[in-house]
Amino acid sequence: MASELEPEVQALDRSLLECSAEETAGKWLQATDLTREVYQHLAHYVPKIYCRGPNPFPQKEDMLAHQVLLGPMEWYLCGEDPELGFSKLEQTNKPSHLCGRVFKVGEPTYSCRDCAVDPTCVLCMECFLGSIHRDHRYRMTTSGGGGFCDCGDTEAWKEGPHCQKHELNTYETEEEEDPLVHLSEDVIARTYNIFAIMFQYAVEILTWEKESELPPDLEMIEKSDTYYCMLFNDEVHTYEQVIYTLQKAVNCTQKEAIGFATTVDRDGRRSVRYGEFQYCEQAKSIIVRNTSRQTKPLKVQVMHSSIVAHQNFGLKVLSWLGSIIGYSDGLRRILCQVGLQEGPDGENSSLVDRLMLSDSKLWKGARSVYHQLFMSSLLMDLKYKKLFAVRFAKNYERLQSDYVTDDHDREFSIADFSVQIFTVPSLARMLITEENLMTIIIKTFMDHLRHRDVQGRFQFERYTALQAFKFRRVQSLILDLKYVLISKPTEWSDGLRQKFLEGFDAFLELLKCMQGMDPITRQVGQHIEMEPEWEAAFTLQMKLTHVISMIQDWCALDEKVLIEAYKKCLAVLTQCHGGFTDGEQPVTLSICGHSVETIRYCVSKEKVSIHLPVSRLLAGLHVLLSKSEVAYKFPELLPLSELSPPMLIEHPLRCLVLCAQVHAGMWRRNGFSLVNQIYYYHNVKCRREMFDKDIVMLQTGVSMMDPNHFLMIMLSRFELYQIFSTPDYGKKISSETPHKDLVQQNNTLIEEMLYLIIMLVGERFSPGVGQVNATDEIKREIIHQLSIKPMAHSELVKSLPEDENKETGMESVIEAVAHFKKPGLTGRGMYELKPECAKEFNLYFYHFSRAEQSKAEEAQRKLKRQNKEDTALPPPVLPPFCPLFASLVNILQSDVMLLIMRTVLQWTVEHSGHIWSESMLQRVLHLIGMALQEEKQHLENVMEEHVITFTFTQKISKPGEAPNNSPSILAMLETLQNAPYLEVHKDMIKWILKTFNAIKKLRESSSTSPVAETEGTIMEESSRDKDKAERKRKAEIARLRREKIMAQMSEMQRHFIDENKELFQQTLELDSSVSAVLDNGPVVSDMTLTALGPAQTRVPEQRQCVTCILCQEEQEVNAESKAMVLAAFVQRSTVLSKDRSKFIQDPENYDPLFMHPDLSCGIHTGSCGHIMHAHCWQRYFDSVQAKEQRRQQRLRLHTSYDVENGEFLCPLCECLSNTVIPLLLPPRNVFHGLNFSDQPNLTQWIRTISQQIKALQVLRKEESTPITASSKNLENMDELHLPEGFRPDFHPKNPYSESIKEMLATFGTATYKVGLKVHPNEEDPRVPIMCWSSCAYTIQSIERILSDEDKPLFGPLPCRLDDCLRSLTRFAGAHWTVVSLSVVQGHFCKLFASLVPGDNHRDLPCILDIDMFHLLVGLVLAFPSLQCQDFSGISLGTGDLHIFHLVTMAHIVQILLTSCTEKSGMDQENAAGKEEELAVLALCKMIQQYTGSALKEMPSGWHLWRNVKAGIMPFLRCSALFFHYLNGVPSPPEIQASGTSHFEHLCNYLSLPNNLLCLFQENKEIMKLLIESWCHNIEVKRYLEGERDAISYPRESNKLIDLPEDYSSLINQASNFSCPKSGGDKSRAPTMCLVCGTLLCSQSYCCQTELEGEDVGACTAHTYSCGSGVGIFLRVRECQVLFLAGKTKGCFYSPPYLDDYGETDQGLRRGNPLHLCRERFKKIQKLWHQHSITEEIGHAQEANQTLVGIDWQHL
Ligand SMILES: [Zn+2]
Ligand SMILES: [Zn+2]
Ligand SMILES: [Zn+2]
Ligand SMILES: [Zn+2]
Ligand SMILES: [Zn+2]
Ligand SMILES: [Zn+2]
Ligand SMILES: [Zn+2]
């Protein structure tokens, strides 16, 4: 189909290309009716360019559109070649001093916390880096797209509005200059003409609603008959639904469907079918039918292709306009003018209005294009910004209503422009004053919440889904209100006052609808059936919290406004309480001779509501009055006389009583919704305008009342009046033995009531209530938070209320109250309370939750004990009240209060029944303490001749009145002081008595007023002294004993933890002090140690006993006994890879015999080092398997390990494992003793081996030829005359027990299975190769780690590593015994042939392409298979030595061939090295000779020798490890210490000459031949001629990529990254591979690929190529490290970026600047180097089961 269309399109192109822009423009300049002319042109050409087939061709369309359509317009506009014209315009352009950069999704934005007027003021990265704010406190976020940089906007910044770049564009003259003065009349006129026509055209066509008919001016004569089936975006249907439906409806593949769905989601619409009307209509009906089961079907239209063509061009026009006005501010001004000019239809007919008003009807793509145009035109022109703001405000109601019913997110709605307009202070003020914006917003909001109850209050119960949806969207209006109010006026005009108060009225109306909403009644008997809806009301409250605070802030700025607002608020509150005292008869309460009338009301029986915003607003205003002193200056202006204190306190009191009753368990049957409401009422997010204000309102009311009256009313509301008004209630109760629950309930209520009194008197830290400022308030909050425990910055921030600018004010005071402790390698930085602040601690701080209170109490007492102080926590000294609240202190000395205190103390003294509690007593003691502090303060601050009215000490010294005749409070305290059951409170009572005496002294000295004689009671003390001292001593002994026991217990606990730490956390921490002693037990001191060869140091046989972790039985390790195994984990690895693009293509036919030096596909084996019996492990594994199968059937749950793949967790440490390694003794000692008799030299040995190989090969050939030819058999045998002593028919006996053999096979198969990712097959000849390879690779990787960390080669290794290497090497050495001899011999022959060419192997790799260490390991471990048939007396050791020497020489040649021959001018003279230098030069010359003239430059000998030494070190170190573990020869002590490179020691240990070149000289003849054969290889030639690359030595260690210091540069980098598959789309979850640095488009449909038959995300796909299934990523938007392993395993890991407070910010929620922490990054790199990623994931998943359920493969 496509091929048929092509020629047609091609043909059209040519005719179009002939159209000349200049000519057309010329025609237009002559035209009389320009509009008609242009429209005709468009009508003719647009359908010829756009929409010519089912799929758009954007590049071709753009090219043609520019040529045929836009070109003429540009010519017309300029009147000359636009290239010239526009550059002229640019020259006169006054560049904007606004940046105005529109943010892309994910782009970093910065806001200065010091200078931004509000948090919506942001800078782009470029401006930020060039601004003064980079040194301020700033916050970083990622943009959600839309919005622009505020650089240059003087209203947005208190300081530094311009960055360096935009500073240049500000001119001396501040006043506005008309930008048009720079343009010629002609240009202005033509621009005006063409802008008007084109803007009009675009608006008309985009808002066109007919589906098959064009506007008359654009109708064509010859109309094609093609249609599009256009699918539109909505937010109801999911991706999956759309994809599924499309596959059905238009018969496309899943891939195409994904493509369609992605475009629909991005652009808002996409044609899914092209053709005749019926054909499209059919698709439409299927889509509609298939999606109508949801709330509404997907929107689909069948549109005529020419309409779609014009709409596409309309969008093009808008972006064209946007780019044209970039040339000149004059053009921009003209466009603004055109856009805002009122059309023929009057109001709302300007183009801008028309676009705005049809916003919700447009598709996403169209919206974003015109929004962008608005931003670059209207919002960039100061004059028109204002006019546009007015249009926006006038249309506000309509736009918001459209938005509420529209289903697109707000960022795609024009309504979202409010943030751009309302946050500009001058515009906001203008709109309030002139357009009454505040009222409009509130009214619009109210209009959308019409559902009310009979009292006119909001009702959210029984909301339909649609109403709930609307409610969610309408909340954005509150945000608009916040924007308008966010910057407070500096001066008030009368107009502003008037409109603000008008808005205030509207706001009160809103609050009135909330006052008393969601009322609740206590449920008795049955539990409620359905939890009532409560969240909506709280959502509203929460969203309004800042607005309420801001409105108060506004009021505070102007006295007139404040007074008016106060009056209005009071009036509304009175309305709300209308009928408050009506109805029932009041009741009279009387105690202690005081009496008061109050209404009959019971919280537990009648309706009560938590929502009282009007009362709370009044409380807020009252405090402002108190603070601003208006109340004292103009009391006549205030309606203070209208205030009825009982009315003010009534509702807040009910609310607090409700909380107390809930706490007392009286509302249990009302379910969780109530518990949640109470929680939020106190929560930091709400409390400022809820709980806090209720306390203030009570304080307000009480300060105007007789405290006795208040206390009586309070007792009555708490339903405790009976208890305290009945004398001897306590005795009665205990004699009656009532219901225990009821007593408990009353006790709690009494405790709560006492707590409330403490708060009313003690909470004076709001400015206006007490004489404090805002700093004191925040300091106090922080002190109390830190009294609970030291906290991280973010924790502390979370516990403090944020203002509308998201600030807590914490930074300014934190230094004064806390010390900062930096974090270590894990954990966070912490703030600790300064010790001197502890005295400000108040146990009854009103923002403590109960749990916090008890934690704080415990912490503070502990602290005091540590400081050897008494443990009393007396109330702190408080600041004085403001005058309006001053009378509150009298509560403490009121008669009713004293009665309450006395009663509680009396109960305590009687100490009988259940009617008192320690908490109750503790609160009473606290209240007494507060009163004493108060009196002391009064005395200390008293002025001359002032009468002290606070006489608490006097009152508590008096005994109770008749009829009780109880002792005085003081006397009771003295009694209680020694009560054995009050041990905890003893110190507090002591403190009270001490303070009492201090006050008495003060009074005496000031003698202001007489103090009642109290000595009597004090004197009694001496008589009881003795008695008391004895008791005290006993108590002290008891205390000491208790403490000792506690200490012992905690000591035991610590031991337990320590022990288990060692057990469970034996990590690969190489620097750890784990003192694993290598098994160099036999001291072989005065002797050079040799690891291999005939001279190998003899090590006495050692007995090794180990314990099975499963059955705890001991067992000796030897060849004949039952196998012992180590839990092990085998994995593929690319950690050492030098070529990440390589991976095993065809595992079934892959030949792993030779490892390439790029080490690209390695197999790593690790172990936790825990040992088990093979049979114990087998039993354990079987049970795990069985359990897992049952579990999967039952729960379909995943686990952190994959049993089907042989995975299990180590039974001791839960480390992920997938096989076991058998423990063995050095395998070589099992076979042969060492033999020192006459051994062949290298040349002889090679000859012998070659002969043996030849013999074997002949034999093999014969075996494979048919038997009929067996006659020839003998003949051949003769021909080849078997080498002396070689007996190829001999088969040695396997020395191992059955159980060990079985384990050898098990581990071998596992390595094979994992390494090649194939099905297990014991018989596969590649099994032994994989075992050797894993051994070699693991040794190499550990050698790298040691070298990177400058650790000695044989230093103390952690046990698990040491055990693992030993077992792995010995296993690999023994594995050949369970494989067919001929297979191993075959491998040996082939490996051998790579160095010593034979006849049979042709296509072997050249020495440049062989990793020599892998080759060495393979040769050495395969050699016994040949040697065991050799009875000529050549020892195994001799073979090892010759193999090692041969490989070493090959490696030297390899190094010389590949060492970069950079010239070094100065030759270092080094006499000691002379001999080596000459030798290496000679060797080099020889190589040169064999390779021809290719190696031209000859570097100095010194240089070459240095290269050889450096290049061969890793090989020597690996070899030393290998032979050490294989043969069990202890390592020389020198290499156990770190320091120099130990080259000589290594050579000695490995039986090498210190001058490695001697090897060549000793074996001159044969080496000549071999080197020649190596150099003659074609690959070597190609390399030397520069046709290919080769690895050079030493190979550098791989590192994770370099990360930038500043996290925002990563965000920036990621924001420039677009999805590689969906053409320039921004990626939603850009994720960076930390191994190779590739950015991926993660977690997204667009980049899913198929892997082994499953769809996987970009990250999982990447792990397969980059990390052999293991990956380390950084999710850039989330600032989170992601570990992946395979398809099912993954976890998140803490990122290496920290803020200044030593905390990470996963999810970038806090936005503090983040900087790279190198130590933490190194730790991640170490995990990678150690191959511990999979293990880390396993541990994370075991610890957090939710991680198991995540679909990691989709990331
Ligand atoms: Zn900028
Ligand atoms: Zn700037
Ligand atoms: Zn700043
Ligand atoms: Zn066992
Ligand atoms: Zn373990
Ligand atoms: Zn993508
Ligand atoms: Zn990668």
TrEMBL record:
**EC code:** 2.3.2.27
Q: Which GO terms describe its cellular component?
A: chromosome; cytoplasm; nucleus; ubiquitin ligase complex
Q: Which InterPro entries match?
A: ClpS_core, E3_ELL-like, E3_ligase_UBR-like_C, Ribosomal_bL12_C/ClpS-like, UBR-box_UBR2, UBR1-like, UBR1-like_WH, WH_DNA-bd_sf
* GO biological process terms, semicolon-separated: protein ubiquitination; ubiquitin-dependent protein catabolic process via the N-end rule pathway
Any Pfam family the entry gives: ClpS
Which reaction(s) are listed as its catalytic activity?
Answer: S-ubiquitinyl-[E2 ubiquitin-conjugating enzyme]-L-cysteine + [acceptor protein]-L-lysine = [E2 ubiquitin-conjugating enzyme]-L-cysteine + N(6)-ubiquitinyl-[acceptor protein]-L-lysine
The yes or no answer to whether the keyword Lipoprotein is present is: no
Q: Which residues form the UBR-type domain?
A: 97-168
**SUPFAM superfamilies registered for this protein in UniProt:** ClpS-like, Winged helix' DNA-binding domain
Q: Where is this region: Disordered?
A: 1004-1034
> What's one GO MF term for it?
ubiquitin protein ligase activity
Keyword list, A-Z:
Metal-binding, Transferase, Ubl conjugation pathway, Zinc, Zinc-finger
Q: Where are the zinc fingers (UBR-type)?
A: 97-168
Pathway noted in the entry: Protein modification; protein ubiquitination
Specify residue ranges for compositional bias: Basic and acidic residues. Answer: 1021-1034
Give the matching CDD domains.
UBR-box_UBR2
Name the job this protein performs: Ubiquitin ligase protein which is a component of the N-end rule pathway. Recognizes and binds to proteins bearing specific N-terminal residues that are destabilizing according to the N-end rule, leading to their ubiquitination and subsequent degradation.
Protein family membership: Belongs to the E3 ubiquitin-protein ligase UBR1-like family.
Protein name as annotated: E3 ubiquitin-protein ligase
Organism this protein belongs to: Bos indicus (Zebu)
Q: Which gene encodes it?
A: UBR2
